[in-house]
Amino acid sequence: MNLIDYFLQNQDLVLMRTFEHIALVACAVGLAILVGVPTGVAITQNKLIADMVLYLGSVVITIPSIALFGLMIPILSQIGQGIGYVPAVIAVFLYALLPIVRNTYTAITDVDPALREAARGVGMSALQRLYKVEIPLSLPVIMAGVRSAVVINIGVMAIAAYIGAGGLGSIISRGISQSDPVQIFAGAITVSVLAIITDGALFLLQKKVTPPGQASH
Amino acid sequence: MIKLEKLTKIFDSYGHQVMAANQIDMEVPSGEICVLLGPSGCGKTTTLKMINRIIHPTSGKVYINGEDTSKLCDTELRRRIGYVIQQIGLFPNMTIEDNICVVPDLLGWPKAQSRKRAKELLEMVALDPSVFLKRYPAQLSGGQQQRVGVIRALAADAPVMLMDEPFGAIDPINREIIQDEFLKMQQELNKTIMFVSHDIDEAVKMADKIAIFSQGELLQFDSPDRILANPINEFVENFVGADRAIKRLRLFTAADALVADATTSIGTEPVVSLQTSLTDASAMLYSSGAERLCCVDADNRIVGWLGHQQIAARLAQAPQASMEKEALSCQKAC
After folding, report:
1. What is the DSSP letter of B318?
2. Are B39 and B67 found together in one domain?
3. Cα angle, residue B4 at apex, residues B3 and B5 outer, rounded to 5°
4. Residue B5's pLDDT band (cuts 50, 70, 90)
5. How close is the nearest chain A Cα to the Cα of B29, in Å?
6. Interface test with A, best of B69, B91, B162, B163 (most A CBs within 10 A)
């Protein structure tokens, strides 16, 4: 009951923190899409470079988020951004890269060789093959990568409250420092619900970019 | 017209040089279907794919309607050649309409013109445009997809078509139907077609000329009749099969063998039309046990009869004049 009271009394705060959270994740994953999709496409040209890039991505994802924030403080302090919004976005950007790059790379390399040949045979240039055939066919899988990046990082972003980035994590962290389980639960539940709703919305988007009759991944 | 001049492909496979096609010389006159035939790895597909440079030739030249294609860039060349592959290769992310219009769109045709063309082409292969234009490839049956694959290659009205085992993935019954449809279409369209097959029966049915390949060499390039009647060596003879005389029957119709006699009385013997192939005619002779068949024309008037002897006599006739002479006379005519 305390929980419901909390939500009723702090509607504005929860809403504001939720928007902050969404803005942080959207900004970081948006950047990761802008960098990750072209990278995923580019590394299809060379197996060795692809393996190296994907390995590097896996290494990054193994760094605990709290450690990553700590590592960035001295570096970003040089430009006066040691804590706050910037390191949070950079960390989540780094975590989001791997699923997006990997899914883009896998989807493009998995395009049916017969379709590649058909695209060459009708006289498409390399660039036309990419944006008329290969990327559209890869979109469902790329979207799946974006989806997992978003869902994972909605959770990761909660920790960013500790470096002063705001978001729903600040409700949890205040709950911890005040030994108030109600606030901890309120923050945690909101993070979970946000993740579930976003996952569902992105799933619908993923289905929308899948051509009828083609199996969705 | 498609002309290949000393077309050669050498693949480098782990340091070994593999001769995939050795100095292939051949010329397919305009409006003819040439079937490239041979076992797997004989060089027929390599030769076909060197024409639109899906495989780049090691040396040699390709001329299309007299133009040296080495002066064209890859994409320009390919947009001028219709291309049909065994796996069909319709783009799953595009509607049937957009698939058909791929080449016209690349060539920058006005939308209205290319969309009208898509409609006409679908009607030509008896697929209702109001049903199929907006569908996606995965919503069509295999036979329907292959028809769309063929009309996509026709969309920009390229004079030349390359077909790589186009009907290979279709079940035998539908294959016959699509082959017949295609031959009917070709009578109107008069494209110059190179067609890869490994099926001698398909080749005899479709081809004006057959090119038999083995181990990268073009062994024999001739009319189906001459290939079946006079295989150039043991390999060709074995490849076309011991029943090559029976295969030849398909090339002739009742009209080619009958004894003209309008007074033939219809008794118990089976009746055949003039267009009946001798394959079907002899099958009727054997199955009915009759001595002869009665032939009638399109208006059901009796024109004559034929029996086993007439069929055998037709097979005993030498095939028509050789290719070289035909080619020469064609060059003069052109």
Report:
1. P
2. yes
3. 120
4. very high
5. 23
6. B91
Instruction: Report the Cα B50 to chain-centroid distance in Å.
Output: 18
Size of interface A-B (CB pairs under 8 A): 74
User: What CATH number did the domain enclosing B109 receive?
Assistant: 3.40.50.300
Closest residue of chain A to B89, computed from CA coordinates:
A115
Place of tokens 């045979």: A121
Task: Output DSSP code: residue B253.
Answer: B
Closest CA to A140 of A40, A193, A214, A209: A209
Note whether B77 contacts A123, CB cutoff 8 Å: yes
**Are B87 and B221 contained in the same domain?**
yes
Residues B206 and B300 in one domain: no
User: B165 and B134 in contact (C-beta within 8 Å)?
Assistant: no
pTM, rounded to two decimals: 0.83
Q: What does chain B come to in residues?
A: 334
Q: What is the spatial distance between Cα B42 and Cα B171, in angstroms, rounded to a whole number?
A: 25
Number of domains in chain B: 2
- Residues belonging to chain A with any Cβ–Cβ distance to chain B shorter than 8 Å: 112, 114-115, 117-125, 128, 132-133, 136-137, 211-214
In a domain, B332, yes or no: no
Distance from CA of A50 to the nearest CA of B (A): 23
Residue B61 Cα distances to B18, B32, B68, B211, angstroms:
20, 20, 7, 18
Q: Which domain holds residue B282?
A: 252-316
For residue B231, being part of any structural domain is answered with yes
Residue B269 falls within a domain, yes or no?
yes
B211 and B267 together in one domain: no
Q: Which ipTM value was assigned to this complex?
A: 0.82
Architecture per CATH, A2-208:
Orthogonal Bundle (1.10)
Q: Do B75 and A214 touch (CB under 8 A)?
A: no
- The mean pLDDT value of chain B amounts to 89
Which helix (DSSP H) or strand (DSSP E) does residue A137 occupy?
helix A135-159
Mutate to test the interface with B, among A111, A116, A122, A216 (most CBs of B within 10 A): A122
B190-238: pLDDT as tens digits: 999 999 998 898 999 999 999 999 999 999 999 999 999 999 999 999 9
Q: Residue B150 above 60 pLDDT?
A: yes
Q: Chain A within 8 Å of B91 (Cβ-Cβ)?
A: yes
Percent of chain B residues topping a pLDDT of 70: 96
Is residue B325 a part of any domain in this protein? Answer: no
Domain boundaries along the sequence of chain A = 2-208
C-beta separation of B46 from B55 below 8 A: yes
Whether residues B227 and B280 share a domain: the answer is: no
CA distance B75 to chain A (A): 4
B78 touches chain A (CB under 8 A): yes
